[in-house]
Amino acid sequence: MTQIYDKTGRSIAAGDVLKVYHFTGARWRKRHFMFKQVMRETTLGKNENAAPYFFVSHLTLTPEGERDSGYYLALDGKHHADIEIVQGLVWHHDRPRVAAPASSRAPDWPVAMSRELAGAGG
């Protein structure tokens, strides 16, 4: 099974509660987050196109399979800069950290954009 990692380099597992970046507010540039829970690992696709995914719940108590019940997160080995594990069934602080290779790091858009805009403002 391929792992995926949060912004601290810890592997995400079924049962983890995640803090996910949602948007940056217009006033005072406050960052807003949502909380999600990894429910289970599943395989989507058939035969040679089959790939592993996590099903992530929105915590709305909507039964799985109904509209807005959750989404799928690909187990593709990436490090997600916008996701942080806040609680897990297995103590997440004991999990080893893995440094992200530069090619797999997702840019932290709000920080990157604010730096770019600060430099462009003169």
Question: What does it look like?
Answer:
The protein is mainly beta and 122 residues long. It has one domain. It has 1 helix and 5 strands; from the N terminus they run βββββα. Strands 4-3-2-1-5 form a 5-stranded antiparallel β-sheet, with no helix packed on it. The termini are far apart. The mean pLDDT is 81.
Low-confidence stretches: none
CA distance, first residue to last residue: 48 Å
Mean pLDDT across the residues is: 81
Number of strands: 5
Quick rundown:
The protein is mainly β. The chain has one helix at 109-120; strands at 17-24, 31-44, 51-57, 70-74, 83-87.
Task: State the main characteristics.
122 residues, mainly beta, 5-stranded antiparallel β-sheet, 1 helix, 5 strands, 32% strand
Topology at a glance:
Layout: E1 17-24, E2 31-44, E3 51-57, E4 70-74, E5 83-87, H1 109-120
Antiparallel strand pairs: 1-2, 1-5, 2-3, 3-4
